[in-house]
């Protein structure tokens, strides 16, 4: 057994969004809206702040890095309920 806590995606998103809002790199509107688990890694998704043409903006990298931070922080601790 891995020792990870089993958690619903809704509860995990509440935790993730709290971490986002408390982080120094928080940008207004930054929010995780979905999570899935791939090979024991939690993958967070949400708004990427693309421009009108669908191209990345300066905020896109910040969001990508935040979702990567969440994966590193939360994957060792949680697994999604099946």
From TrEMBL:
Species assigned in the record: Photobacterium lipolyticum
Cited NCBIfam families: PRK11037.1
Protein name: DUF2498 domain-containing protein
InterPro entries: DUF2498, YciN_sf
């Amino acid at each position: 057994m891995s020792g990870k806590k089993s958690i619903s995606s809704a509860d995990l998103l509440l935790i993730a969004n709290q971490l986002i809002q408390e982080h120094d790199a928080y940008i207004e509107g930054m929010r995780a809206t979905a999570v899935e688990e791939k090979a024991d890694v939690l993958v967070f998704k949400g708004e990427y702040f693309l421009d009108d043409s669908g191209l990345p903006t300066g905020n896109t990298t910040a969001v990508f890095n935040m979702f990567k931070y969440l994966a590193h922080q939360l994957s060792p601790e949680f697994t999604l309920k099946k």
